[in-house]
Amino acid sequence: MGYKTQRRRMFRTCLSFLAAHNNTLQSKARLLPLLNPNSPMSAGPSPAPFDPTDDPDEGLCADLDGCSLGDPSPPLPSLLIRRHLSGQVLVERAWEHWNQLGAPKLVVAPMVDNSELPFRMLCRKYGAEAAYTPMLHSRIFTETEKYRSMEFTTCKKLSGVKWCSYGIVELLLEIQKHFEDNFLISGSTRTKVLVLKPYRGVFRSYKLFKTFGDRPLFVQFCANDPDVLLEAAKIVEPYCDYVDINLGCPQRIARRGNYGAFLMDNLPLIKSLVQKLSQNLQVPVSCKIRIFPNLQDTLVYAKMLEEAGCSLLAVHGRTREEKDGKKFRADWNAIKAVKDAIRIPVLANGNIRHMQDVHDCLDYTGADGVLSAESLLENPALFAGYQTMEPTKDSSYEMENGVILDQSDLAIEYLKLCEQYPVPWRMIRSHVHKMLGDWFRIHPQVREELNAQSKLSFEWLHDMVKRLKDLGGAPALYGNGDIKSRAKANGVATCIS
Ligand SMILES: Cc1cc2nc3c(=O)[nH]c(=O)nc-3n(C[C@H](O)[C@H](O)[C@H](O)COP(=O)(O)O)c2cc1C
């Protein structure tokens, strides 16, 4: 699918958001048939160009079987009795919560149509320590069951371990392989100690500091009405670790709908959104912001959010006007200044293309973690240390001593996850284009064939990937020696079920 087609699809998805914000009968008549073909408002002449029921890409790739949400989880102890906390206590609770989640540093950024469950699971397997859902529209979420079930899916929360040493994971793998049911892992979330009883009766204890499955999870909403936002947030709070407010979307659709970065013109409204959630939810509220052109404005803004009850702040170091991430570098100085000015955990967003960027960004800004978006779409194994090989003087050394990951294998893994966790075909199409972009540049005829498929199937996609592999020639992802065990380690983690 060409870039323009993708933009058109994205635009069509966004139209539903726009429709929800225009309180006219006409916009509702467009919106409801879009989201719920059985709605009484869908009767009468339908606005054909906006009706996704005509478009196979809008359908789910498999049945959800009514299990899209996993189990609701009880709140962590740090979350109880949060109401009317203020100042220092809120900050302490914010850190307590963050640390209970294992202080995740490597985070999948929110991406409309792109940070959906199977993609999150793929990134988690390859090193991501937390993830955001795509932005959900709070009003549509409260009004439309079909929107909820199609756009928000997650899965069971699993307890597991993240080991201090990757060598230990190798050991665990071996034990698992040979003894399967004959070895015992038990753990206590209270003491945060895990007991591993391997064969020969030797007990060993390790620190337990992570939960698995689709957690930690930020569920992101856009909103401009505190009551509606709270209603939407209440639905998801048993399934997530933060409810996040999108204060950074710079698109025209957000301007017209009055949400995202356009709320920066109305800070009292932002304050009321944050306060409403922080005083009425058990899970903490987080915010994702863009910076103002003027640093002082950014700092006043960040402090206001903290005082209003925000427990974690993700700072995208670009202004509302700097929409094109490839054209404008994110301003790490501004992120550093925010981190220095407030006391809650801060995540840095922008310019993260590989693990060296992660280290540089954390060192430079002092942030508590990073978000990555566009680079992860091309390389979901980024957080496991893989990167595309740029020809440098070290390339030959890396090729001899490093490990190689084939992007087509990642695409296959993603497709399998989609079979397990169904999503609309449009999302799969978008990911396949991004993950196999390098291959398509070499074999554009295969891309054309994909674009020509109005109705996709897994069989067709698997076959397409196989044909691409047979044609060969695309650059692989490379990593240094310790990467393999790291990816494997995360693989083990997601498999404990
Ligand atoms: C396809 C796509 C969809 C996005 N959707 C969202 C979204 O739903 N919510 C949000 O806060 N930001 C969204 N963003 C912005 C990213 O989260 C991130 O802030 C931005 O891309 C900068 O990070 P990067 O430099 O790593 O790409 C999106 C970005 C992309 C590329």
UniProtKB/TrEMBL annotation:
EC number(s) reported in the record: 1.3.1.88
InterPro entries: Aldolase_TIM, DUS-like_FMN-bd, tRNA_hU_synthase_CS
The DUS-like FMN-binding domain, residue ranges: 108-154, 214-455
UniProt cross-references to Gene3D superfamilies, sorted A to Z: Aldolase class I (3.20.20.70)
Sample GO molecular function, one term: tRNA dihydrouridine synthase activity
Enzymatic class: oxidoreductase
Alphabetical list of PROSITE patterns matching this protein: UPF0034
Pfam families, sorted: Dus (PF01207)
Cofactor: FMN
Key words of the record: Flavoprotein, FMN, NAD, NADP, Oxidoreductase, tRNA processing
Region (Disordered) location: 36-55
Record's catalysed reaction(s): 5,6-dihydrouridine(16) in tRNA + NAD(+) = uridine(16) in tRNA + NADH + H(+); 5,6-dihydrouridine(17) in tRNA + NAD(+) = uridine(17) in tRNA + NADH + H(+); 5,6-dihydrouridine(17) in tRNA + NADP(+) = uridine(17) in tRNA + NADPH + H(+); 5,6-dihydrouridine(16) in tRNA + NADP(+) = uridine(16) in tRNA + NADPH + H(+)
Sequence similarity: Belongs to the Dus family. Dus1 subfamily.
Record protein name field: tRNA-dihydrouridine(16/17) synthase [NAD(P)(+)]
Organism: Zingiber officinale (Ginger)
